[in-house]
Design brief:
The structure is a single chain. This protein has 18 helices and 7 strands. The protein is of the alpha/beta class and 412 residues long. Strand 6 and strand 7 form a beta hairpin. The radius of gyration is 25 Å and the shape is globular. It binds adenosine-5'-diphosphate (ADP) and magnesium ion. Magnesium ion binds next to helix 3.
Length: 412
Amino acid sequence: MDIVRDVFSSALKPRIFRDREKLLPDYVPEFLPHRESEIKRVASILAPALRGEKPSNIFIYGLTGTGKTAVVRHVLSKLEVTAREVKARVKGVYVNARYRDTPYRIIADIGEAVGARIPFTGLSVGEVFGRILKAVSDTNTIYVVVLDEIDFLARKRGGDDVLYKLTRINSELRSSRISLIGVTNSADLVESLDPRVKSSLGEVELVFPPYNAEQLKDILEARAREAFQPGVLEEDIIPLCAALAAREHGDARRALDLLRVAGEIAERLGDSRVTRNHVYMARDEIERDRVVDIVRTLPLHSKLVLASILMVTGGGSSYATTGEVYEKYRYLTVKLGIETVTLRRVSGILAELDMLGVIAGRVVSRGRYGKTRVLELAVDPGVLYKTLSEDIALGDVIDDIGRVFGKRSSVR
Ligand code: ADP
Ligand code: MG
């Protein structure tokens, strides 16, 4: 084998991307088509900060991929730049609750961002608040604190309390003020919030509507120009990605992922252009990865609950009630010789799985018994089974699942 020739020939392979990073989810583009009015709205609410006045709190909701994070980060960074130019004392703080395990970590992040010294553990939430107060109280600064994916905070134990304390913090500050921007993908959250938190956060409420296929096309086109080599996209690739994403709910993240992964597949296959086929392959690959990523990182009891659903639904072809799932779950924990958590806790796990999109709740009519809430799998059972079986903690139980599952389906 000629190593040098190998290197040369791979360098000569057709190149698909110019700058693939421009399609990654964390990249915040300079230009956000079809969000002009939202950007203007958020900017005008925050503008008083430049004059040293506390902006209203804002509560933003909308489905995933509707540009909430991008818009908020975009405006926040411009606000800081402008504040520096005009010498206004404004500081933006951005935290995303999804990536934090506990309310303590979230509040500690905010503390660190405002210059308080917070140990990794060891303080009570109240003490962390004390340190935040001390750090910010006399700085004569307007802090704009974004709590992104706030539902992940609100649903955790103690989360409500942290939110409540945050919304009251201004009464204890001297020269400084804190404005809050709460962002969520979940409309349910709005209803489940502590009413005092809700009314305080929701001084201004903004709803981000989903994008339609035309708008997604514009968004993709702008980003594709920066990300791809000229001419590598076949003509109907962008409309196809836009249409597939619009069919779900107009999720820009999904549209961008489809386009990026289609490009990656084309590159992997050594093809010189991105075709429709690559887009369809991308769709399947994304779905598979999504399930694997979510399921892999679930705690053991959540995996067991999922395994129970897989068993009750016979590999996903039917639905299950919470009672049926709990019974199966109990059987599995007893078999493994581990603690069985309460039905209440399992209901909580089911709500989380629903939120993650792994299962879906549905109300069905059961004849004279009236309507019942049931659960069904929202992911490919074969992929789910395979991912669960990677976890050695599931031990023998995986054979039980396999048996039920193998009977109904040949996907293994
Ligand atoms: P959300 O926070 O509402 O779930 P994001 O702001 O994270 O959505 O957007 C998802 C992805 O789509 C990100 O990569 C973001 O940069 C991109 N995006 C969303 N809206 C636009 C837009 N109007 N123009 C360009 N890119 C966008
Ligand atoms: Mg977001």
